Amino acid sequence: MAIKRFKPTTPTQRFKTVIRVAGIKDNEPHKSLVSGKCDSAGRNNNGRITVRRRGGGHKKKYREIDFLRDKKAIPGVVETLEYDPNRTALIALICYKDGERRYIIAPEGLKNGQTIIANDKVDNEPGNTAPIGNLPIGANIHNIEMVLGRGGQIARSAGSFATISGRDKGYTIIKMPSGEVRKINDNCIATVGIVSNGEHELLSIGKAGRNRWLGHRPKVRGVVMNPVDHPHGGGEGKTSGGRHPVTPWGKKTKGKKTRSKRKSGSNFIISRRK
Q1: Contact, 67 vs 89, CB < 8 A?
Q2: Which helix (H) or strand (E) holds 91?
């Protein structure tokens, strides 16, 4: 894996970088594991924008990822490593012994031809999946279940992982990517390893058009708007707003805690993230 830089033949090429990974398949994804994807452009079922600055974006197909890893005791061989336009991590096409194929999130170090398995007891090798209570303390894990049977929800983006730090009466204590320490039921599944493509955070977009391909529209600061459009707007010359940063609707932002104190699962948090 390496970051490719370009000769500055144009202003945007001067800063643009892309990641090149050896062994990545460039052609179409496996046909039975893709479906059409319709972009909502930030709109809800009433057609109203609820998430601002979304729209456009390149056409792409959705790859169906196996987050549940419920094919137990059936070994699978890595056929290809592939780029997925819907996520920052790489994905791997697995061919199981019974002939079925599935996509999984590829961990760092997974290679073509490697055998992986999901079972109650597994070797501590990248790509193997087991109940979190059966994995060794100190292991780095990803694709972690929070609710039994729901499939992996934690640590799925490029370079992310959690670390098993202890046990406590039917629960495993893990340190999350955010620094939060929480308990997870011993029977919830997790996959061994660190999510691939960890250099993703080092990428330089290079030009505005590349952000538009990702579906990100421009962001206008509130302080340059008029008072009718934003609470920070108006004033003679530049101002800092003269108040705590707020949204266009007057709600506090930039640092205000939004997590509900009554959120289910809060009682499993041992230490909050910094």
Answers
A1: no
A2: strand 91-96
Average pLDDT over residues 193-220: 92
Model-wide pTM > 0.70: yes
The token duo for 145 is 């279940």
Three-state secondary structure string covering 223-269: HHCCCCCCCCCCCCCCCCCCCCCECCCCCECCCCCCCCCCCCCHHHE
The CB-based long-range contact list for 171-180 (8 Å cut-off, 24+ gap) reads 171/268, 172/132, 172/133, 172/135, 173/270, 174/132, 174/141, 174/144, 176/273, 178/273, 179/273, 179/274, 180/269, 180/271, 180/272, 180/273
Domains along the sequence of the chain with CATH: 2-43+52-201 (2.40.50.140), 221-269 (4.10.950.10)
13: how many CB neighbours lie within 10 A of its CB?
Answer: 13
